[in-house]
Amino acid sequence: MYPVAAPARKTTAARRCPDRRQAGVRIVTRRHRALVTAPFRGEGLRRLESIADVVYDPWIEQRPLRIYDGAGLAARVREEAADILVVEADLVDGDVLDLPLTVIGSCRGDPTNVDVAAATARDIPVVRAPGRNADAVAELTVALLFAVRRFVVPADRDVRGGEIYRDGLIPYQRFRAWQLAGRTVGLVGLGAVGSATRWRVEGLGMRAIACDPYSPEATHSLDDLLAESDVVSMHAAVTPQTSGMIGARELAQMGQGALFLNTARSALHDMDALVEALESGHLGGAGLDHLPGENLPTDHPLCHMDNVVLTPHIGGATYDTEENHSLLIADDIARLLAGEMPVNIVNPEVLAE
Predict the structure, then answer these.
(1) Annotated catalytic, 294?
(2) For 113-163, how does the pLDDT look when each residue is reduced to its tens digit (9 = 90+)?
(3) Active-site choice (207, 282, 313, 335)
(4) pTM, two decimal places
(5) Domains and CATH numbers, the chain
(6) How many Å apart are CA 176 and CA 171, to the nearest integer?
(7) Catalytic hit among 265, 269, 290, 325
(8) Which of 53, 133, 213, 326 has the fewest CB atoms within 10 Å around its CB?
(9) Catalytic residue among 63, 160, 176, 294
(10) 32 an active-site residue?
(11) Residue 265 annotated among the catalytic residues of the structure
């Protein structure tokens, strides 16, 4: 049985006194009060409770869904008299940044939900949780790889629908496929998720190559990787340079029957070009865990392709991801309160003299 999140609870108000600075970092002497609207669990939650009074009210447990904007979050911070704020989905901008916050923890690898520039202008440290979901997303990448290559979804559908001998053919005829062992996987991006995916596919007997301008371990250009790979798997961050990096030209460079996987962000590829490459038979299949606007119309062509598996952005949806980001954030908050430099601080300049 998986552990469940601790129930929401309120504790006594924090005692306040001014912050002071020493040796380039902030030294804090008061007992703090933390509002945590992110899922937080395990050792990280216990760690945070040891250094602050914690109000725990995660967005993910709310029915209906509740995600604060800046004004709503500011009202909640004032209500709880909190000076430490830990978020995952809520937006930290506007009014909330005018409050006397000691630190903001964003339980994401990239704190896109925080107006970092505004926090920096107000001298508020922001810490993040890089690599928190690397293993989880890598596992889903492998799951999609198997599901696409071995036709798991249509085979399951045939069994459930009593169509094992559909069209007068036995399943062994309809679902033959090349095995994965001995094939080459091209990883576009070799950060935390790409690296976690690499050793997993190598464990399946596959050869892994990578392109990543920021990793010395990535030895291939994108063009060479596309031409050489039986499977192309996307693990890059979305930036102005990577947005739309896989279009019609790049898909055409992939070998006949190759597979395309994207467990990162849909903005990395051209959806229309992907549909065309699949409909033409040039690509053998695709597995996607992210869709434009987090949704896909039911009449979209991809929804009717047996060689495509679609999941609704669930790569990081594990309890382990929550434990990982909880400990990363709690440890950095503890470092800050102890007068040390946080490891994963986004704006270290706010702690300079």
Answers:
(1) yes
(2) 999 999 999 999 999 999 999 999 999 999 999 999 999 999 999 999 999
(3) 313
(4) 0.89
(5) 20-132+318-351 (3.40.50.720), 134-310 (3.40.50.720)
(6) 8
(7) 265
(8) 213
(9) 294
(10) no
(11) yes
